[in-house]
Structure formats: C-alpha cells, structure tokens
Design a protein that fits this description.
Number of strands of chain A: 9
Order of helices and strands of chain A: HEHHEEHEHHEEHEHEEH
CATH superfamily of the largest domain in chain A: NAD(P)-binding Rossmann-like Domain
Radius of gyration of chain A: 20 Å
Largest sheet of chain A: 6 strands, parallel
Number of domains of chain A: 2
Structural class of chain A: alpha/beta
Oligomer: homodimer
Helix content of chain A: 40-55%
CATH topology of the largest domain in chain A: Rossmann fold
CATH architecture of the largest domain in chain A: 3-Layer(aba) Sandwich
Largest interface: A-B, 58 and 58 residues
Chain lengths: ~210, ~210
C-alpha cells in the first residue's frame, strides 16, 4: 500500500519514533489508534502525524483511527527494519557494554555479530551475549567473513577515525558513531552521530521555556 | 540580536545539532563558515540552515558566511545552555556509568550532582567523578537539597516509572529517559526519551536506499 517511495527524511525520522509506542500498544491489546492519541504519545502535532502516515497508504479510517498492526507492518517495511541487520562494535568500555546488552536492539532486528577492542586485557574475553572480544586489526577480515553491514563506534575520540577507516575499508557503508568527534567518510558511506548532549540541549531549552 | 522568541521546535532540534561542528571549527582556528558548509557537516539542506539561522539575527554576511563565535554565543543563549544545569542520575549499570563519564556533558554545562541506585552492593560506592552512590529512597530529599533540575533514568524498565515518580515528587520538571518504557508524567513535566534503536532504524533506512 505504499503510495510513493520519495518520503522526506524528516518523515522517516518521525515514523521511526512512532514505532515504539505502537508496539507498546499492541502488547497491551490495543489494536486501533487515533492520530491525536499517537501525536500526543510522540509529542508531535496531530496534523503532522496524519501527513506522515499518508505516505504509508490509506489504512486510517475517519472517526475510528489507524489499524496499529498494519501501521507497524508498513512502517517496518519502509524503514527496512523488517529484516535482520548485522552489526560490529568497536570499543568495549561502559558505553559499548551497555549497547551490547540493549534489549531493544535485538528485538528490532539489530544483531551484534562481532566486538572489537584495542586493549590487550580485553581481547579474548567472552561477552555475556556469546561473542569473544577481537583485536581491532581483525575488523577487516571479520567484517567481510561475517557480512557486517553497520559499524558501531564507542571507542575513545582518539581511536574513532582509525576504526571508522577500518570499517570503511572492509566495505561497511554505514556507521553509528557515539564518539564525540566528526568522522571523515568516503562519499559512498553514511555516518550517523549520537550525541546525548544535543538531546540534553533540546530538553534544557524546553524546560527553560516552560518554567 | 534575537528577532523572535517563537522559534519552531524543529529549528531548535537542528540548531542544537549545529553546535558541535561549530565548536569543533573554533578549536581548529576557523572563525567563519558558509551555510553550505555547515549544511554539509550536519547533513541538512543549506536553505534549511539559512532559514534556521535567520531566527538568530543577522550575523550572516552574504558571500562570506557566518561568524562562528557569534553564532555559538546566540545558539547557546537560545538553548539556555549558556548556564550550568544540575543533573541527578538513577541506575548505575553500564549505561549510567558511561553517561557519568561522558566528557561532552560536563563541557556543555550539564553537571551530575547526585547518583542513585537500588542495589545494596552499589550504594556507598565512590564514583570516579567524586560522587557516592545513594539509595533510591534518597532521591526526594537530595534532589531538593542539591537543586537537581533534570533527572536522568538509566534503570531497568521495571524501576523506571518508580524512579520517575520520585523525581517528579521532588519537584524535578524534566527527565531524560534511557529506559525502553513509556514514562507517565504530570502535565507540568517533560520527558525526553533516548532510543538508539530509533537512530539505527533511520540509518538502516538510509542504507537500504543508497546501496
């Protein structure tokens, strides 16, 4: 029921956000939702929700709402999250360990298939999810053998670019970067930065307006 | 030089994103930037950058660019990140520990003044940043004594709502939630969720379109 493949990036970012509350509702036995309710749960304008969902075809019924099950199915198809993605992670300090144990990743189809670190004390250690920590220099051969598609960087800023270059060199086209540096990348490749301090800036702004 | 206080939320989210590369450039000795360059660094449309920055007054010079120093100053003023915010964190597993040591937080004016956990083995431990882990039940008195403004939740999903209610009860009006549950909140309060799997969904979407 997809009407058009040319969906704006901002819509994609928002529909990715809609997924979590929709999945929560299904678990609670709710099968239909109004755009107003979904908008409220996601802190988005209801007109915006209706516009975003219009890209995904016509399963909203006026005065009733959207069939949640259909909506999840279509959103996942669009987001390409209806399949498994293979992830490799480099940097196994607290942040790396937290990500490896993040239940939402696995549940949403993101599977860590390799973990790398440069610390000789960590290399060879067995992780709770069943992987053994490998040295950084094995990134290229292992990424190719295992078919890693997304590289996750949780190293120190000093190491982040070196690790990124190894991921790119192995043919990996997408990186999720938690290290607070700007990663240089080939034109063919994608880098998405995660910076909690940006999220805090947004929250602090809203707080300073409300109180 | 602020023209108007009614800045759209989406603009706020983007200008918070612009800050990091701008600060990196200052460190590298660069003092002027074009909207095209900034747009490229932040993966945003150049026209969008110009529109966003127009809310912050007229320090762009046609054919030259923006004065980075002025831009940072105005963005920080708008975001209210030109002052220190006091944070309390509950949940000191890997994610909590990673956040406590996140250098960008402190650099950007976000200071953890208290840390809470429910695990008797953790309570009383001294953290590298100088705080001692306190029991969850001390959230209310300590939040009030220390003037905590933002509560950060990195507990298990089972504990997240209980902790959130304690933060709200202590008069805290904003929560940054890393736990994968939907936090119920009083109308007066703000909750911002951080969900890396949403970020991965966005990256996987872009990857599936490019390759």
């Amino acid at each position: 029921m997809i009407k058009d493949q040319k969906i704006p990036d901002a819509t994609i970012e928002r529909v990715a956000l809609y997924l979590r509350p929709l999945e929560d509702l299904i678990k609670l036995g709710v099968h239909v939702i109004s755009s107003d309710r979904l908008a409220e749960m996601c802190k988005v304008n209801p007109a915006q929700v209706r516009k975003d969902l219009s890209y995904f075809g016509g399963f909203g019924v006026r005065g009733v709402g959207y069939n949640i099950h259909d909506l999840i199915f279509e959103i996942k198809k669009i987001l390409a999250s209806d399949r498994e993605w293979k992830l490799g992670i480099a940097g196994l300090d607290d942040m790396g360990m937290a990500l490896l144990q993040h239940k939402n990743f696995f549940k949403r189809g993101y599977k860590f298939v390799a973990a790398f670190d440069s610390d000789p004390k960590k290399i060879g250690q067995r992780l709770p999810i069943g992987l053994t920590i490998q040295p950084i220099r094995k990134i290229k051969p292992m990424a190719q053998d295992l078919g890693i598609e997304i590289g996750v960087i949780t190293t120190s800023p000093l190491q982040a670019q070196v690790v990124a270059d190894m991921f790119f060199d192995a043919g990996i086209k997408a990186i999720l970067n938690f290290s607070p540096i700007h990663i240089r990348r080939p034109d063919c490749c994608l880098v998405q930065n995660v910076d909690f301090s940006v999220t805090l800036d947004q929250l602090a702004y809203r707080l300073s307006k409300e109180v």
